[in-house]
Hints:
It contains 4 helices and no strands.
Amino acid sequence: xxxxxxxxxxxxxxxxxxxxxxxxxxxxxxxxxxxxxxxxxxxxxxxxxxxxxxxxxxxxxxxxxxxxxxxxxxx
Length: 75
């Protein structure tokens, strides 16, 4: 797939936050998105050069863009 991979996670983040009552701790939101999308552990364990999970990194980028766009608050 071409283009920013984090875009895949925009709607799942919004759905997860809605399911959590509109707010959630970042780590909990990330784990909920992974569970909701049924992302296998083998995929979550793939890392970027910094050592961080590629999937979790993309979810964090999506969350950051949602924050910058004013759709969610960063807390």
